[in-house]
Amino acid sequence: MSDLAWSDAQLKEVAATYGTPCYVYRQDLLEQFADAWINALGDRGTVCYAVKANSNLAVLQILARRGCGFDIVSEGELHRVIAAGGSPKKIVFSGVGKSFDAIRFALEQQIKCFNVESLRELDHINSIAESMGVIAPVSLRVNPNVDAKTHPYISTGLKENKFGIAADQVIDAYQHASSLTSLSVIGIDCHIGSQITEAEPFMDALEKVLAWVEELESLGITLQHIDLGGGLGVRYDNETPPQPAEIIARVLARLANRTEQLIFEPGRSITANAGVLLSQVLLTKHNGEHNFAIIDAAMNDLARPSLYQSWQRIQVIDPPEDATPLHWDIVGPICETGDFIAKQRPLCLAEQSLLVIHSAGAYGFSMASNYNSRRRAAEIILSDRCMHLARARESYTSLYRDEYLFEG
Ligand SMILES: *Cc1c(COP(=O)(O)O)cnc(C)c1O
User: Fold this and answer.
1) Which residues are catalytic?
2) Residue 265 CA, ligand 1 centroid: distance in Å
3) What is the CB neighbour count within 10 angstroms for residue 5?
């Protein structure tokens, strides 16, 4: 098990070499967090890393070599996984709205399974498969309607969410799927939310899923796998989420008398704490009571604080010794009041200070945009041997490379 602490010297070297803002990921941590799932699951199933959390090619490559499969939600993600050397045999395709082109391409690539979210989508996949003369492997994403009151962080597994097939339609949907001749019904899946910091919601969802599995069995529909989705939380501040091994041990104990393979789709729990965002303070500014540190990273680089009011730990490298700590609002240069990374943080900092924004490896770069015509940041992977430039900072010309002046 490697040390979770980051080396200031290494981060300073990255900043000096590649500039800021930049994302830095550690190979050892990516492997450690992936292994936690892979080793606990053993030969009982497949870990399908959720690509949307961090879809950098070199990150996907490291995870593929470690044995991960992938959970994709778009044709673009399928292209990325293939380019990174991931095996289509270990790809599950989730999402409420898959385009026909995406379905066709996934069938050509012979992916492991389509996680289907509606009756209409069953028909679509069936007719595309039929036209291609192939059989599409499908699982139905069920909505277990896990109680949000006890588990407030769960947001996708409630009946009012757009995700999954509603509880009262599940059996009908399976019977419909079984009647379609170009589908092979092989699994059941759910994904109840994200940043879940207890084991109970997973166990609650498993109970609901097992009840359906047994009912389906009595109707002659037998499944090969149960996919419990992703959603395991990580420590951003002082959360204490269970380890993958604990969840998997409990699930396996519950499934002791069953033979289905298991799939998990972890995203955040593999990449979040394997990455940081490095940024430099451009200037400081004091408006009345407020102390602002304006940094060179912004909401276009890291959207989570503005989108979800999320909290991420911020560390100052070599803080000025003579400064008194103040409560700082850490903000970006974008023309939006919502452009902040953190608020009211007691820190010692000054202009040019290098900041480490922790837990930024998941839903960081993958949600980045070019808003305000800002170039997306560089991504660097640290290994034992080297600093690897996994994605160069965008160039200014790349910002408008695909645009055409009006030939008036
Ligand atoms: C986002 C997502 C995941 C991954 O969620 P994490 O919270 O990052 O683990 C897994 N499965 C599906 C269907 C998703 O939409």
Assistant:
1) 335
2) 6
3) 6
Q: Spell out which residues line ligand 1, taking CB within 6 angstroms.
A: 50, 52-53, 71, 94, 191, 194, 229-232, 265-269, 362
Cα gap 17→14, rounded to integer Å: 5
Residue 169 sits in the same domain as residue 70? yes
Please give the model's pTM, rounded to 2 decimal places.
Answer: 0.96
Ligand 1 atom with the shortest distance to the CA of 196: 7
Residue nearest to atom 10 of ligand 1 (CA): 230
- Report whether 352 contacts 397 (CB < 8 A): no
Domain that holds residue 213: 27-270
In sequence order, which residues have a C-beta less than 8 Å from that of residue 164 and are 6 or more positions away? 117, 141, 142, 143, 144, 156, 157, 190, 191
Same domain for 278 and 146: no
How many angstroms separate the CA atoms of 296 and 264, rounded? Answer: 37
Q: Which atom of ligand 1 is nearest to the CA of 193?
A: 7
Would you say the C-alpha torsion 301, 380, 351, 320 has a positive or negative sign?
Answer: positive
Task: Specify the DSSP element, H or E, that contains 25.
Answer: strand 22-26
Chain centroid to Cα 115, Å, comes to: 17
Ligand 1 midpoint to CA 316 (Å): 31
Expressed in angstroms and rounded, the spacing between residue 166 Cα and the centre of ligand 1 is 19
pLDDT (tens digit per residue) in 158-205: 666 778 899 999 999 999 999 999 999 999 999 999 999 999 999 999
Shared domain check, 293 and 263: no
| Count of domains for the chain | 2
Task: Tell me, yes or no, whether 86 and 120 share the same domain.
Answer: yes
Q: Are residues 241 and 315 in the same domain?
A: no
To 5 degrees, how large is the angle CA 26–CA 28–CA 33?
A: 95
Cα–Cα nearest to 248, from 67, 92, 72, 35: 35
Q: Give 27-51 pLDDT, tens digit per residue.
A: 999 999 999 999 999 999 999 999 9
Domain boundary among 253, 270, 287: 270
For position 219, which CATH number holds?
Answer: 3.20.20.10
Question: Residue 194 has which token pair?
Answer: 């994200």
CA 252, 254, 259, 265 torsion: positive or negative? Answer: negative
Q: Coil, strand, or helix at residue 365? A: helix
